[in-house]
Fold these 3 entries.
Entry 1:
Amino acid sequence: MPAVTIDGIEVNVEPEATILDAAKKAGIWIPTLCYSPAVPNLAACRLCMVELDFGDGGQQLVTACNYPVRRDLIVSVSSERAVSARRGVMKLLLARSPESEELKELAQQMGVEGTPYPKVTESQRNCILCGLCVSVCEEVIGCSAIGYAGRGAERVVAAPFRLASEDCIACGACAAICPVGTIQVRIHEGTGEAEISPFKSRAKLLICEECGKRMVTEPVGKQVLDRVKIDWEEFRKRARLCPECRRKRAAAALGLAAAKSM
Amino acid sequence: MIQSPAELEDLREKVRKRRSTFDRVVRVCIGTGCAARGSRRLYELFCEAAEISGRSGHEPKWKIEAKCVGCHGLCERGPIVVVQPGEILYQGVEEPDVEEIFRETVIGGRVVEHLLYEDPATGKKAQTAEEIPFYKVQKRIVLAENGNVDPTDIEDYLAVGGYAALARVITTMDPEEIIEEVDRAGLRGRGGGGFPTARKWRSCREAEGSPKYLICNGDEGDPGAFMDRSIMEGNPHSVLEGMTIGAYAIGISQGYIYVRNEYPLAVRHLKTAIEQAEEIGLLGDNILGSSFSFDIRINRGGGAFVCGESTALMASLEGRIGEPRAKYVHTVESGLNGKPTNLNNVETWANIPAIINRGGEWFASIGTEKSRGTKVFSLVGKVVNTGLVEVPMGMTLRQIVYEIGGGTKDGKAFKAVQTGGPSGGCISAAHLDACVDFDELTRLGSMMGSGGMIVMDEDTCMVNVARYFLGFLKQESCGKCTPCREGISQMLYILERITRGEGELEDIDTLEELADLIGETALCALGKTAVNPVLSTIRYFRKEYEEHIIERRCPAKECRGLFLYEINPEVCNGCGICRKNCPVEAISGERRKPHLIDQEKCTKCGVCFDKCPFAAIVKV
Ligand SMILES: Cc1cc2nc3c(=O)[nH]c(=O)nc-3n(C[C@H](O)[C@H](O)[C@H](O)COP(=O)(O)O)c2cc1C
Ligand code: SF4
Ligand code: SF4
Ligand code: FES
């Protein structure tokens, strides 16, 4: 197992682990925004810069979240060059999304007090374009309901043609993974629908027959069916109740059975 | 189907014999520049003339052939027509000239003086390319046969020795020997990075995994660049031969050529070339009767500048959006479809046959210690001769600008030369004697890039130049990573303020700070190098930035609002045209008396400057 020395602390990691993995093992914090174990390898936000020391006098800044450890490495998280690169990137992000509470909090943890730069790019509800939502939708959920529209500073995350996407199952994975709360799941009481905002897609929610509590959306249920190979009727029969009511019923049935057998 | 190298030589002999029966050959350039000026029609007219003379009752005196050839480089003087024997070069040929050239030169063997190239400096006429200063100091390896061979006819390529290198490697060299030969040549990638080609090939050869892929990068997204285009259009077989040799050396059976979407002629010529090579067994299964097979497919580019970047290109080939990814694991290990992939630029591939034919040592004897061979540049901007030039590495900028380019236009003073495409840098007059090679250009804060070279004169504002290139790069940034997307926007915002006359003294420091940040943290080379235009202009023309910021003055008088329009009373004859055209009525004056601009009212729109028939309005 290759050894990684991070700010003087040595840890061993499996080959192909990342510097970020090694840092976690060494108990050293590196700020990240676009990293998630569910969709590694985006390396888009560039917040996790660390300095690699080749030992021959050469150094290089690399992103910790996707740099593979293939041999022994000497890494500095706290070197001036690494710190100032990370802070610089954070300042650019703050200029883009100055309202984001999540960003401000992370900045504070990094020792960044505000940004010297003006706001020159538009962000859709503080979106920092980390790319996590697009990747999770495509790679984990398998829907590819959202993608990028526009290039460069004009880039936004959107459904095709910015219309409600047919492919969206309103599972909410993107909302869950978004680090700055751009994406939200809205419940429409009147229609019994879930909406993934700002992508405009909506889907009917299944409701517990007993207590009326909302469960998953219909298309999520359908997608699950495909995987577990039971048909919709069967599923509806089994999934009429929310987990709680199902438990209660089961317990009641048990109680009944117990009473009978006595 | 050719089954062996010996059969290839037989075919070559036959072709040559057939060719030698022509007494007269007229070569018409159909490169992009010449074609835009109607050279295809010229070709048809020459064909007609040749046919008519062949039919004209009595036994024709000469056997005449007219053919289309690729770009000669001297695009500005096109259309170019060359008549053999004598290699007489005619420039600026128009339809009515065809008859004269045919009668005088083709039939009569006399020279048509008025169509010859005339040196604008000396007034001396040149009969052949060699006599034209533009070509004199060039050294043509890659472009050697451009302008000689018909790109749509494989026999032409065979006649000049084509595919001999391929035959040689397949029969007499093992893969390692080929890589060693390329290593001896010291060839470095011509696509911009200058990575040693042999090292790339070796890594790919040694990488685990199969199949392996080979790609030719013909995306050429730099605005105004047409080096690769001219090679693909003018001599496509040289690229195919280079790729096939590389595939044999690395152990690859599938190749792709990724061609910029805006190059339909290149696609056509490459397609024809592939078909013809397949037809006679120089491509496809069991090449030249050996056990080696290699296929080449053509793909149209994704249309964005960043698609030329290696990982973005591969993503695009896979049918995904053309966006870069981190290269901590190299593409020679995991590239297209996650398989080992060897990507080289068009010009890199086109150098390979010559290296095999003439030896790595010969190639290495050209150029400088760390940059061997030649490089093709597209020389444009404020120089007398613009066009495609191929020079040995190590030639000075001065030689290129003055000996080949003929110096700046209209007697204006030289100011800077911008090399390396949009993310290259501007080099000032003080460094004109620098040698052009990979490392020297980088040292000067610019880069080789793919070989763009733009000459700028005293009328060019360097702050505006930086703003212009950064504006291009902002458009072309894919937007994936923070520093490039946000940082370039920040820098551009500052540059726009400076060119509007709203700059602040700290701006230069902030620009440098941002440049440093982007250079350190951007994901791909687009972002990392995007700062070059700004850093290099600050480095060599800091004073100009300061004049904009402190004095609110644009010394080159390009930035609107940072200079004044005045009327020169000596020249003004009071015609009143400016007064009538001024949208804000800032100009007053009586008829036939010198007029005056009220600077308080003037919005510096420049209408008067454009309208004055006597050039009495000056920028101060
Ligand atoms: C933004 C960007 C655009 C590029 N465009 C091209 C291009 O159009 N053609 C090309 O050959 N290389 C281009 N490159 C360089 C390629 O990434 C790659 O280095 C090159 O094709 C490798 O071939 P070589 O080793 O023969 O130079 C580009 C690089 C970047 C960062
Ligand atoms: S919406 Fe959220 S997850 Fe998606 S790119 Fe923007 S910040 Fe990242
Ligand atoms: S540097 Fe620019 S072009 Fe390259 S990945 Fe980042 S945003 Fe895209
Ligand atoms: S967390 Fe590493 S680049 Fe975003």
Entry 2:
Amino acid sequence: MNKKSPSEPLLSVEHLKMHFPVLGGIFRHQVGKVYAVDDVSLTISRGETVGLVGESGCGKTTVGRSILQLYQPTAGRVTFEGKDLTRLSRKEMRDLRRDMQMIFQDPFESLNSRHTIGNIVEEPFVIHGIGTADERQQKVKELLRRVGLSARARTRFPHEFSGGQRQRVGIARALALNPKLIICDEPVSALDVSIQSQILNLLLDLQQEMGLAYLFIAHDLAVVKHISDRIAVMYLGKIMEYADADTLYAHPAHPYTSALISAIPVPDPTCRRKAEILSGDVPSPIHPPSGCVFHTRCPYAVDQCKETIPELAAVAGGAGDNHQVACIRTGELRL
Amino acid sequence: MNDTPILHVDNLVTAFDTEQGLIRAVDGVSFDVRAGRTLGIVGESGCGKSVTALSIMRLLPKPHGHIEHGRIMFHDQDIATLPADRMHAIRGYGIAMIFQEPMTALNPVHKIDRQLGEVFELHFPEMDNARIREKSVALLKEVGISEARERMNAYPHQLSGGMRQRVMIAMALAGEPEILIADEPTTALDVTIQAQILDLMVKLQQKTGMAIIFITHALGVIAELCDDVLVMYAGTVAERAPVKTLFQHPRHPYTLGLLSAIPRLDNTPKTRLNTIRGMVPSLYELPDGCRFQNRCPYAMAGCSIAPPPLRQIDDNHWVSCYLYR
Ligand SMILES: Nc1ncnc2c1ncn2[C@@H]1O[C@H](COP(=O)(O)OP(=O)(O)OP(=O)(O)O)[C@@H](O)[C@H]1O
Ligand SMILES: Nc1ncnc2c1ncn2[C@@H]1O[C@H](COP(=O)(O)OP(=O)(O)OP(=O)(O)O)[C@@H](O)[C@H]1O
Ligand SMILES: [Mg+2]
Ligand SMILES: [Mg+2]
């Protein structure tokens, strides 16, 4: 562990790796690996939001799913309240799932279209055998009210709702068992701005009231920055930079973070700045570049970057362990 | 700069006959497009951006989609009533379009050389194969595809999302159109790739002087790229203005709401955002009067009686709202 927070973290992820096999040939044998997540470490404290941001395919969802043990990680440890999840039995893990929930980008896909909203929100209670039918109905009403839906929604079906309303249903279900951590995988990416802000506010309110912790996954840095205490920037399966939300934006230490910030179109026509445009595409995670995985697109790369894999380490003169970067040229660069 | 519009859309109404009844997905939309300038059309999902574009291209799904009313003047021809064969000629070297889903517009079973070649054949029937190939490679280079000669032999799925979008742009530019309509060309792309594509479009416009109609739901992209903006809401125009005016002096309550609802990088983290309460009304259950009334913090008694007309309140600044009369 190289990160310290004031109290013991709720969740800690250490050197997590998730490599998927690539199958090929007529016998479908393994011909390679997808290095989807390749050495990711982070911690989340109670009531805290950690944002995970990066471009498509960089491994954000895989981190989320590996934390919940929906995948068996290739390597590394995931500890929740001191318990090593990779060593729990099925039963122990199922009990622990009450404390860790997930909400998804497309609430439509994650909600069973043949069930009523009432059934969907009630399901976690049923699975865990909690309460009588009446008590459960009462709970469902409360939850729906809590996320801003009317109790009448109980008898209706997901397709009768808009994207934003369906996202509220997904949140209501995730809240049912009073979790301590919710992994939010692109929860607002499919929503229009006016609805997106409603959902972000709801997540902020719920966190305040219930002391929830979030891992907030998204590709939109402006959204992530708005909701997070700390942010991890991912690229090709690795964390490039990890810092407080404000620090990351005001003093990015990694060339990738800086490029990401500069690529975001600013909603102000008077400050059209020349974006620092990265050339090329993200390389395939099946053949990640040697050394620093970002070197093929990095405007500051030197020969050494092709060889040395940079460690995630505290930024010199930065905020100590609260600002970490994986770049061998930190200190020399003025970003 | 020549100030006469090359495209003048006047009170366009486009309807769909659906099983649940007739809906007007675009209901009284007007705007101008000028050479060398970029008009942004912005608004939330379902507000009629793509239908507006498809109306201009006369590519509405048949038979249930049709232009019910209004004029679409391209120079001195009215596209709204033009015979199909004349429209064919306009598509391509008059007005070309990049569609919202690049994978549906590219044929997955044909290589890039064939797809690009077909576009050239269409516009320049006299061109021979060798010349078409030469032009295709040049155009791929122009849109920033490296190793263009090799990429000619690729299938669409072998290209990244950003490269596919570049191919789409190349196909749209083959006929050297006067107007390029780009329907959410960067929405599916990562921000760093989006930045490349936006940069490319600006450069191509500077070189060719074409006009661009850029459709997006991202206000950031509008601010970055556009000269003029049309804000749409539920099939109607809420506000129309030059880009600086729109961002500095937004007038319609919907525009105000949108601008204050976007998370900005320089916001203080974890503060509440402004929201627009409620939801867009369904096109099947539209209220009488202003379509924004149920969400509007300034709604007055008169708002539910008749739809507010689009009024000019300043130079080139148009708003449809009873707050301004
Ligand atoms: N079950 C799987 N089997 C094989 N490869 C996978 C699997 N799941 C993900 N991958 C690959 O792992 C990489 C990371 O995928 P992941 O879904 O975690 O990315 P992401 O950052 O969530 O992307 P997005 O922003 O598009 O959701 C991708 O290259 C993806 O194709
Ligand atoms: N073929 C069709 N038949 C019936 N209704 C349609 C058809 N195409 C579009 N519509 C309706 O017309 C309205 C406008 O659709 P349009 O595709 O123009 O929205 P948009 O602004 O482009 O949205 P998005 O941002 O999601 O692309 C929507 O309510 C849509 O449901
Ligand atoms: Mg994902
Ligand atoms: Mg559209």
Entry 3:
Amino acid sequence: MRKITYIDAIIEAQREEMQRDENVFVLGEDVGLYGGVFKATKGLMDEFGFYRCLDTPISESAIVGIATGAALMGMRPIAEIQFADFIGGAHDQICQQAAKIYYRTGGTWPVPITIRCPYGGDVGGGMYHSQSNEAWYCHVAGLKVVVPSTPYDAKGLLKAAIRDNNPVLYFEHKKLYRTIKEPVPDDDFVVPIGKADVKKPGRHLSIFSFGLMFHRSMQAAMKLREEGIDVEVVDLRTLLPLDMETIVESVKKTGKAMVVHEAPKYGGIGGEIASAIVEECWDYLDGPVVRVAAPDTPVPFHPKMEQLYLPSVERIYQEAKQLFEY
Amino acid sequence: MKPKTVSKGQAAKNSKPRGATRKRALEIPPEEARELHYYLRLTREVDERLVKLHRQGQIGGNHYPAVGQEATTVVPAFFMEDDDFVGPSHRELGVFITKGRGSPRSMPLVQVFAQVFTKSTSQDEGRNGPSHWGWTPERILEHCSNLGTQIPVAAGAALSFKMRGLPLVAFAFIGEGGASKGDFHEACNFVGIHKLPFVIIIQNNFWAESVHISLQTGNDNLSDRAIGYGYEGIRIDGNDVIQCYQTFKYAIDKARTGGGPTMIQCDTYRWYGHSMVDPANYRTGSEVSYWKELDPVARFERWLVDNGVMTQEEIDQRVKEINEQIFAAIDEAKSAPDPEPETFLDKVYAD
Ligand SMILES: Cc1ncc(C[n+]2csc(CCOP(=O)(O)OP(=O)(O)O)c2C)c(N)n1
Ligand SMILES: [Mg+2]
């Protein structure tokens, strides 16, 4: 099977869905002529025309609101927020309009929109171009939040998001765009929303992670394996709704749980996962549920500061080892 | 024909009651005028009844009376097709009552009351507050309290109409206060770029809760903003049904036939406070009585009588019938069961 990058997977998923369903279209800043600042919509305007890959003014609220209105009329829009850091302008549209329309219309009016959010650090972007703000939206009923870590999942989850009848926030990690390649089928498949994936089975300890931190967790797990410590690495893939079944199953098996994410620790999704594990797996736990996350500061710019800010492979390794020895 | 734009400050002056002596050609065909009157009166009587029901403690939550503002909601809704989209704000009762004009998809009167009594038969089955009406079959978005957020949503509906080449129009309503929100700008700017089939109606009742328009903006000619967006803005006397009729007919026809958006500022006035808990003591009695003299419904009724379209007896009879209808609807709404409390857990996500 041919190997493709994470960004290729994103382009391919959009193209295939646009070919399959004429109601699917993309809108956002620079997505048309330029193909997106990350080239995530490259070639789509050429293939599908001006309106189906529409350049918008710099109006995040309107981008999401327009997607919502078009969705109410039967379209399936994909709204690109240029950087997840800029999504705040669309907060009302996401949390008050889109998330609540189905509910407040008594289930008569679904809102099938996908909001693509390039996020994450280790790209030298500083505090306004590096945030991992997925947790902001995990608190809002009516939304779904997906966080693919691999090209395969990037393609399958984006297709699932586009076909879903609810507003889905699709967090795509900028650092992963061109740093990983893997075999991805060039035909139609979806990765179901709400299903985590045990990417590396293990016996001694479970790590729950996603995005760039998933890859760092895998590297830490490989290092630990050399020392005879068998870590299970679970790629969460979806944060809302969380796949508690897979999480619980894993913790019951290993008895030790660690959550790794690059967002600040306080109020991060790690807290939610940790407390859910404590509630549901208390009798099985052989140690504290550990959160490895960023400090509660903005993302600093200086490369050495950012390295210190983001959980490193070494830090994950050390924390996991300590938990193993607990 | 494009109606004359009323200049700043002229709207109210131009439209003082003109009395029986002034002869005008029939600006509205008699059949339409009679029907329009029905919806204007119905909206007025329903709203006054809602005020009474609230005072009697029969409605939980709050009510935002639009008495005095009927022309600016009923008249545009009179020209709407079933498939047109509406993003209402919180004072658009007249749109719910009028849109569809009795078509099978239009909102039955009983629904007005099912919503305020939060019955299981209301569209949202008790999930959203009273006065937060919505009617999906007519594509009227159920109200979201965050002012202004409906405008980008309506712009998106307009975009989809243009993409599909449909002769449909998307409408957004907003108060002059809500027009200060960023969403107003983002959406009104966007629709100008693509000349979308879009009509934005600013109901200027001069007050946003207790804040006067002079503290809302440095230019109370809000429709001037349309110039900046590259399309037409019109300011009218929103208490003059005839002017509303001509202006909305013009703007909606234009939008429907590819002529792009229009921003229409309707100067009007709410007779009651902002809501049922607002005594509105920030405004003077003389201001209120000035506007009550400009009552859009009474003025239109004078016009109907003066022009021989309806007799006073016919109007009186109609008001009587409307109230019978209203009481029947109230009884019907009340007889429905309340929702089962645990159903609030359902319908968070679509399948
Ligand atoms: C974003 C937002 N801010 C504040 C409020 C509270 N609020 C509800 S109605 C209102 C006044 C609205 O004034 P205007 O838009 O002129 O409409 P009117 O009530 O006069 O019809 C305010 C401040 C709200 N609902 N939403
Ligand atoms: Mg107002």
